[in-house]
Amino acid sequence: LVFHFQVVLPTFILEKRSLLEMYADFMSHPDLFIAITNGSSPEERMIRFVEYYLTSFHEGRKGAIAKKPYNPIIGETFHCSWRMPKSNVATDAGTNSSAHSPSEQVTLPKDAEGQAEPDYYTVKFVAEQVSHHPPVSGFYAECVERNMCVNAHVWTKSKFLGMSIGVTMVGEGILHLLEHGEEYTFSLPCAYARSILTVPWVELGGKVNINCAKTGYSASINFHTKPFYGGKLHR
C-alpha cells in the first residue's frame, strides 16, 4: 500500500516574491562583493570572499518567520541592479577607496572622451528559470568596472522530516576575478524549515567548500543546526 499525505501550509508563510527575486538577496551587500577583487593578496581575496559569502546568507532572511516563495515558471526572469558609491568599498589597505569629508571638494577622474567618470560602481543581476524538471534556476551578477562576475545554477530538492522540511541546494557557483585570473568555485548549504505547522523558522545546515584552483587557497564552512535539546541558533 502507498499512502499519500498532503500538508496545507498556513497562508501567512507565503512569500510575496518569486524564488528568482529571492536569489537577488545574495547581492544585498554589493560593497563586500566589489571589495573582493581589491584584496592585495590571494589570501586576502579568499578571506574577503568568505566574508561576503557568509553575509549574503545573513542578509537573505530578515524576518523571524520562514516564508515560501512562489515557484518560477520556465523562462521567467528577474533583473535588478545596485549603485554603490566608490567611497563605501574597502581598498586593499582595508580602508574606503575615496573617503573624504563632506565639505572637501572632489575632482572626479576623466574617461577617454573627457567625460567625468561616475563616483559609483554598478552591480547588475539577472536570474532565470532554465528548467522545469528538475526545477533549475540560474543567476548571474557582474561589476564591469571591476572586471568581476559570478554565475551559479541551483536545483532545490525538498523532503519532509517530520515537523520540518529539508531543502537541498544542488548546484554550484563560480566567482570570476578577471583582473587576477582567478576563479572561486563554491557550493551552497541546505536549508531547513522548522515547526511548519505552527510558526515556521528557517536555519542552514551542512558543509560547503570554496576553492580557487589557481592560488590553491580553499575554505571549508560548516553550518551547524540547532540540537533538539539546548544549543544555539545560526552557528
Which band does the percent of strand residues land in?
35-45%
What sequence of helices (H) and strands (E) makes up the elements?
EHHHEEEEEEEEEE
CATH architecture: Beta Barrel
Mean of the pLDDT scores?
85
Number of strands: 11
The general outline is globular
Q: How many domain modules?
A: 1
Q: Would you give the CATH topology?
A: Porin
Give the class from helix and strand content and strand pairing.
mainly beta
Fraction of residues in helices?
Answer: 10-25%
Rg calc: 20 Å
What does this 3D model show about the protein?
The chain has 235 residues and is mainly beta. It has a single domain, classed as Porin. 13% of the residues lie in helices and 40% in strands. The protein has helices at residues 19-23, 30-35, 42-60, and strands at 14-18, 68-70, 77-85, 120-131, 136-143, 148-161, 164-177, 182-186, 190-194, 201-212, 218-223. The strands form 2 sheets. Strands 3, 4, 5, 6, 7, 8, 9, 10 and 11 form a 9-stranded antiparallel beta sheet that branches. The protein has a two-stranded parallel ribbon with strand order 1-2. It is globular. The model is unreliable at 97-108 (pLDDT under 50).
